[in-house]
Design brief:
By secondary structure, the protein is α/β, with parallel strands linked by helices. It contains 4 helices and 12 strands. It is globular and about 40 Å long.
Amino acid sequence: MIAVVIVSKSWGIGKNNDLLLIIPEDQRRFREITMGGVVVMGRRTFESLPGRRPLPGRLNLVLSRDPSFFPPEGTEVLPDIPSLLDRVAAYPPDRIFVIGGEEIYRLLLPYCSEAIVTKAEADPPADRFFPNLDLSPDWILKQEEPPREQNGIPFRYVTYANKNQKQPRG
Ligand SMILES: NC(=O)c1ccc[n+]([C@@H]2O[C@H](COP(=O)([O-])OP(=O)(O)OC[C@H]3O[C@@H](n4cnc5c(N)ncnc54)[C@H](OP(=O)(O)O)[C@@H]3O)[C@@H](O)[C@H]2O)c1
């Protein structure tokens, strides 16, 4: 599994159940990276998608413990992490993308081999955060692209690798 995220300088990811930072170039890259794969998200992130619709061209899996939660067609609900890991077992691990939010990143990061992080040089107030991988002993910097800028926000694409990846059945 691979985590994909855009973070602020403080590793903030969201505010009021919405994205903290919107960079169109990053959104295009997110679409390209995840297209044709499996996207795994928490129920709150699903509720925040435009029009509350599944992401097209991808198998949308939503984690929720709420039995009354019925998402639209094209979306599957999984009630816990073991069910999710069973459901994705047949897919190539590098085509399974963990796309948020905070609760789901924290639960699934140990199973991720990589984290594809867009680091923005902006720091708006946030109420949801991604773990700071620069401070984590489990994660190492694998690749860092040169800085870019769009809509006045400097940002860079960074990939981290998990030195201590947990195996789903291990
Ligand atoms: N910057 C980024 O790249 C990025 C990406 C995605 C999301 N976000 C932001 O992140 C925020 C949302 O994050 P969040 O932490 O509030 O919510 P979340 O992780 O999206 O979803 C949390 C929900 O997932 C379900 N859940 C959690 N643990 C579970 C488990 N073990 N088994 C089954 N279901 C489980 C629960 O749903 P039920 O309550 O239905 O049981 C829980 O309420 C938003 O602001 C969003 O915009 C940012």
